[in-house]
Amino acid sequence: MTAHRSHIIHGAAITLAALVTSACVTTTIQEVRQAETGLEAHESVVVLGRHHKGGEDIEGDFVECVAGNLNGGKSKLAVIGEDAFIDALFPWFEPRTAPLDTSDLPEIISHPLLSEKLDSIGVRYVIWVEGGTQRTDGGGSLACAAGPTGAACFGFLTWEDDSFYEAAIWDIKNGAQVGKVSSDATGVSYMPAVIVPVPFLARVQNSACNSLADQLERFITNES
Amino acid sequence: MTHRRSAYAIVVIACMALAGVSGCKGGASIVLDGELPTPLVVSAPVRVGLVLEPALIEYVHEETLDRGGPWRVDIGAMQPKLFTTVFDALFDEVVPVGNVADGGGFDGIIAPVIDKMQIAVPAQTQSEFYEVWIRYIVRLYAPTGELIVAWPLTAYGKASKDEYGFMTNPDAPGMQAATMTAMRDAAAFLALRFTADPKVQRWLKGHERSDVQ
After folding, report:
1. Angle at the Cα of B79 (from B74 to B82), degrees rounded to 5?
2. A-chain residues within 8 Å CB-CB of B39?
3. Confidence of residue A149 (pLDDT cuts 50, 70, 90)
4. What are the CB-based long-range contacts (under 8 Å, 24+) for B199-204?
5. How confident is the model at residue A105 (pLDDT cuts 50, 70, 90)?
6. Which residue(s) pair with A48 in the sheet?
7. CB B92 within 8 A of CB B45
8. Is the pLDDT of residue B81 over 80?
9. Does any CB of chain B come closer than 8 Å to the CB of residue A87?
10. Residue A170 C-alpha from the chain's centroid
């Protein structure tokens, strides 16, 4: 009986490893282009998360994911780290002082110290990302119990996550917004449990990041 | 084999119970330390004395929060860094002085104080954030000792508990990050808004040095 249970647990663990990421995700990408784009060899981009007071905070790991994908994509865009950029331009891009829209850009790019700093670090595009991931639905039940002979869970859980992120691309050289790209990923995760819970996770945030970064890369290199 | 598994189950349950109990207790003691970037601002051609009172540079906030436990947040060591970094960028010359009465040779004396500090933790607010509010009063005096302006500066910082400690208690690193964010907020707002205050502007106009081109 114990050996039989060990086989079940072993089999469940293998199934878990194989299926843990296999739930489906549907992603919708939208793009609005307002001007031509392009990046010269000495120019770079920076991806910044919106953290202004009163607004919804974006997850720091999402911003890192988009920046990493842009840097590691087909075009190998030069990407400046968010912290390095914000420190170099302190205090102009802090949560309370950062420009909220492009009407604030002329003041920044006409400021002699800022203009000189932006030139020296070579930033051409500032990509502002905002959004988040929310649980939109859920159901089912799962119960676990532990006894002298071991622990077991029984039941079925399901939940739906929605990741919506929007990126506004500002051209620092021309002081204008050149477009917007958004990524909306939804997916339903499942977790059936017969002794061992086996999660089928829909990685919506990861999918939204990959899709957004791919589209941003095409947008900036003018391939879209 | 069965006995060993039973013992393992008991240990796991005991650990979970212990984690639950310690998680409910909360509270931590932190000493804030770090660096602030130099603000990118144009300095004004004035010479000021800077008074950093012991009450400021030894400031410790102690509070026991409902459902948040006892907290001790020592932000004293960051205060000289905050005000020296910002005022060195805002003014041509900044000299530490003992008190306002020592300001005879300067264009003005600045004496900041902490008026109030508040903290909040996720266990208390049912949110995901550690939050910090610090209210400063930055007083600017004329060389004669007359008060020109008492400028209020409210700084705010927050940090998500999700970014600090998945398997460990996020209390100390979460509060540390929120407090450091508040310090940056104070530095940013001070650097960009202090010299824009009308009374500070009038003082600056009255002390434009003729030897500065």
Report:
1. 135
2. 90-91
3. confident
4. B199/B140, B199/B148, B199/B149, B200/B140, B200/B148, B200/B149, B200/B151, B203/B107, B203/B108, B203/B140, B203/B142, B203/B148, B203/B149, B204/B44, B204/B46
5. confident
6. A128
7. yes
8. yes
9. yes
10. 19
- Residue A91 contacts residue B39 (beta carbons within 8 Å): yes
Query: For tokens 């010269």, what's the residue?
Result: A40
The residue assigned the tokens 């791919």 is A214
Asked if the ipTM is above 0.85, the reply is no
Q: How many CB atoms lie within 10 A of CB B118?
A: 12
**36-55 in B: which are within 8 Å (CB) of A?**
36-42
Residue pair B110/B140 in contact by the 8 Å Cβ criterion: yes
The pLDDT tens digits for A45-69 are: 999 998 765 556 788 889 999 999 9
Instruction: Please tell me which residue of chain A has the smallest CA distance to B42.
Output: A113
Query: Which strands form B60-65's sheet, in the order they lie side by side?
Result: B28-31, B69-74, B60-65
How many residues are given for chain A? 224
The one-letter amino acid at A50 = R
Amino acid in the structure at residue A13 = A
CA–CA distance, B30 with B60 (Å, rounded to integer): 10
Note whether A115 contacts B: Cβ–Cβ < 8 A: no
pTM, full prediction: 0.82
Pairing of strands B44-51, A150-171: unpaired
Q: Give the pLDDT band of residue B97 (cuts 50, 70, 90).
A: very high
Contact A217, A77 (CB under 8 A): yes
3-state secondary structure of A213: helix
**A2 inside 8 A of chain B by CB:** yes
> If contacts are CB pairs under 8 Å, which of residues 46-75 in chain A contact chain B?
53, 57, 59-61
Per the structure block, which two tokens stand in for B177?
Answer: 């990050």
Report d(CA A40, CA A25) in Å as an integer.
Answer: 35
DSSP A33-61: E-S-----TT-EEEEEE---TTSPPPPHH
Instruction: Decide: residue B98, CB within 10 A, 0-12 exposed, 13-18 middle, 19+ buried.
Output: exposed
Contact in structure between A195 and A12 (CB atoms under 8 Å)? yes
Q: β-strands A44-49, A123-147: how paired?
A: parallel
Q: Which residues pair with A34 in a beta bridge?
A: none
Beta bridge pairs of residue A30:
A182
Question: Residue A173: which H helix or E strand, with range?
Answer: none
Is residue B70 within 8 Å of residue B27, measured between CB atoms?
yes
